[in-house]
TrEMBL record:
Residue spans crossing the bilayer: none
All residue ranges annotated as the TY-Chap N-terminal domain in the record: 41-164
Span list, region Disordered: 1-20, 192-219
Residue stretches making up the TY-Chap central domain: 228-358
Pfam families, A to Z: TY-Chap1 (PF22551), TY-Chap3 (PF22552)
Name of protein: YbjN domain-containing protein
Length: 377
């Protein structure tokens, strides 16, 4: 049974049911939280991790952070920051306009933001060449982490740290391991392996796959013995052709999946056991009767799940039952949601405005060509 998107102030709980009779309120509590807060917390986590990692960077080693152009849709524009440790200082370089294609060069305002953050113009710091540069002592590693984080987020327009990549190399160009940098993805070096388990720390053994047939002739899958959250991670990792430990998991425990210009989250709930596959399709949108009618029309076409508007955000949500969990149901929900969200954000934006999760934020730091500052900066 599907329901119309609830207008602002609607407090329906018992009468509005979603996904096989579950109370609507049970699905909406966290989904209606401020999305900007969620993204902000991810950046704070990244900044803290970077502040922890920089002081243990060996002399001569460097960290290069890059906004992944294949994930961000910036084509051949590579927005990157490099930080190298010496005996007493850190030296950082940030890409300038001479290293960017004409369509993606920084505006005057963006250049001003770089300087305000503490970057010196190209050529001022020894070795900076065409890049912006800065030099800070080791005891200001926390300040450097703030500068780098704000550069990637506010100036280069990275919408989420999950779509940053980083490489950590020593003076001889060999990989160096550092603590993981939040949800950023390591290409070389980092993260450090988990600490060795001592004799005083008992290890909980994972059940091995049994080759004994069940009564129905199948094999016992050890995944059915794992907690629901771990089973969900295994399914999502298998779907994305990666390992569970390489999934992008935020501070709330939500798994983030990039789907074109949309972001899809997978959240596990304990009471009742439920997996919610949801996406903030559009943000900063003005709720109108016409929008509600459109979302109701689209929801009625969906076999499961719904579309609705809460505050200034349009959400899409597909629930998957956690009791008697079936991995095929979750895989289908993720596949449906990733395709649906990436298509709907474009269609609804064209009709109602608002901002997509990715795409609009990436271009916010850019200005029309007549505002470019030229090759020097």
């Amino acid at each position: 049974m599907t329901t119309d998107p609830a207008p602002p102030g609607d407090t329906r709980t018992d009468s509005a049911r979603v996904g096989g009779g579950l109370p609507e309120a049970a699905l909406l509590d966290d989904l209606t939280a401020d999305l900007r807060t969620k993204v902000g917390e991810a950046w704070q986590e990244f900044g803290r991790a970077l502040a922890t990692a920089l002081p243990v960077l060996p002399p001569g080693a460097s960290v290069e952070l890059t906004l992944d152009p294949t994930a961000s849709g910036t084509d051949d524009a590579v927005y990157s920051v490099n930080v190298t440790a010496s005996e007493a200082t850190f030296i950082g370089f940030a890409v300038g306009n001479s290293g960017l294609p004409p369509a993606y060069r920084l505006s005057r305002a963006a250049v001003g933001d770089l300087v305000a953050l503490g970057w010196s113009p190209p050529g001022v710091i020894d070795g900076s060449g065409d890049s912006f540069g800065l030099q800070l002592p080791h005891d200001e590693a926390a300040m450097l982490a703030v500068i780098v984080t704000r550069t990637m987020r506010d100036v280069y327009g990275a919408p989420h740290p999950a779509f940053l990549t980083y490489a950590v190399t020593g003076a001889d160009a060999t990989p160096v391991q550092l603590p993981a940098l939040g949800t950023a993805r390591a290409l070389l070096g980092g993260p450090l392996p988990p600490p060795a388990v001592t004799a005083a720390e008992p290890v909980e053994e994972k059940p091995e796959r049994s080759e004994e047939p069940e009564e129905d002739g199948g094999l016992v899958d050890p995944a059915v013995l794992l907690p629901l959250a771990e089973r969900v991670q295994l399914v999502v990792a298998r779907l994305l052709k990666t390992k569970p430990e390489q999934l992008q998991v935020d501070a709330d425990g939500d798994i983030g999946i990039r789907a074109g210009s949309a972001m899809v989250f997978v959240r596990v709930r304990d009471n009742p056991p439920l997996i919610d596959v949801f996406s903030p399709v559009l943000t900063e949108i003005e709720p109108t009767e016409r929008l509600y009618r459109k979302l109701s029309e689209l929801t009625n076409r969906m076999p499961i799940g719904r579309l609705y508007c809460s505050n200034d955000t349009v959400w899409a949500s597909v629930p998957v039952m956690g009791r008697d969990f079936q991995s095929s149901h979750l895989m289908l929900a993720v596949q449906v949601m990733t395709g649906l969200a990436d298509e709907l954000d474009d269609r609804l934006q064209g009709e109602f405005g608002g901002k997509r999760f990715y795409g609009d934020a990436e271009k916010s730091a850019q200005s029309p060509a007549d505002e470019r500052t030229g090759m020097y900066l």
